[in-house]
Amino acid sequence: MKSFDVAIAGGGLIGGAIALELAQAGLRVGVFDRAEPGREASWASAGILSPAPENPGVIPMVPLGKASVSLYPDFVANVEEISGQRVGFRPKGTIEALFSADAVRDLSTIIALHHGLGLKAEPLRHEDARELEPALNPDLEAAALRPDEASVDNRLLTKAVLAAAQRSGAEIFAQSSVLGIWREGGPCAGLRLRDEKVAAKWTVVAAGAFSSQIEGVQSYAPVRPAKGQILALRSDGLKIDRVLWSDKVYLVPRDDGRIVAGATVEYVGYEKGVTAGGVETILAAAIELAPTLANARIDETWAGLRPDSPDHLPILGPTDIDGLLMATGHFRSGVLLTPITARLVREWITLQRVSMDWERFSPMRFVAERQSKTA
């Protein structure tokens, strides 16, 4: 029987980053992935690092996002040093473009909201926005610069994180489906795989959209897959430095010259097909934001499954089963929240305390809600 200090279900970016943190802290760590590690949501993301809330419902996540963005430079440096691989980190900010007739009023609201949440945002004149990013549509009505935001090549980052975790002593097992948690009496004793059990003092579920399929976990991590279609474009001579954002689409430049455009949000189960309608929607919005993309080549199309929780907030922290932690439900912010998630899980396991309040994201909120409905 395999035995570890910590067994992690899920070998994506978050599972890998947790493994790296714990291995560097001197713990024996095993990571178990149902397929090829790093090939689910971590591979499919766009890699935007923005703590700005997309809607009022996710405002409680802003402090977590701010903390994670602040950790990113050191996180990247650590991963690149250990793995020997570059990860395409681009701390160049975001420009948000507005096209509506009420753009000036909307801009004032955006700036006020960001400042109220302690986020930097600066109004840009039309000509200043296009001087910074000439690819922007000349018809934009207003724009905001969010200077502290960044992006990363999530595929490169995931590959490097997994390599760094292994070089630090973590063991990663591909094609190792986790069927359930393993309990002997009260505490969690580890994981149940298809043909064996894995013993561990601590068990962490970081299996993304597949977390709810693990027996014994559903009540703590009732996640469902939110499909996102996305594509990559190439255009000779087109230069975009920053993330470009509108209310319909985002454009994320890569160091290799590609422009990633996305993404849809669809609740269609575990289906990951790319559709004509999805591609059309993304392309129309991308060309509206940066018209010269009409001449770009479509380099690649794909779709991924984000892990969405009922309240669209992450699911982080211990459960009422001793030794069992959740690190899932990150929805559209998995890459953003990777460093802070890994740090908090490592702090809890090694110190039994954390450096910031994560109670709002506790998996026990779903248990309490279910109990209140049946009372």
CATH class of the largest domain: Alpha Beta
Proportion of residues in β-strands: 25-35%
The overall strand count is 18
Shape: globular
* Count of the domains: 3
Query: Please, what is the average pLDDT?
Result: 96
The helix-strand sequence is EHEHEHEHEHEEHEEEEEEEEHEEEHH
Category from helices, strands and their pairing: alpha/beta
By CATH, the architecture of the largest domain is named 3-Layer(bba) Sandwich
Please name the fourth-level CATH homologous superfamily of the largest domain: FAD/NAD(P)-binding domain
Uncertain stretches: none
Rg on CA atoms, Å? 21 Å
Describe this entry's structure for a reader.
- With 375 residues, the protein is of the alpha/beta class.
- The chain folds into three domains: 2-83 and 154-223 and 310-374, FAD/NAD(P)-binding domain; 94-147, no CATH class; 224-306, D-Amino Acid Oxidase, Chain A, domain 2, CATH 3.30.9.10.
- It is 30% helix and 26% strand.
- It has nine helices and 18 strands.
- The strands form three sheets. Strands 1, 2, 8, 9, 10, 11, 17 and 18 form an eight-stranded mixed sheet that branches. Strands 5-6-4-13-14-15-12-16 form an eight-stranded mixed sheet, sandwiched between helices.
- A hairpin with a 5-residue loop joins strand 14 (250-253) and strand 15.
- Helix 1 (13-24) crosses helix 8 (338-351) and helix 3 crosses helix 6.
- It is globular and about 65 Å long.
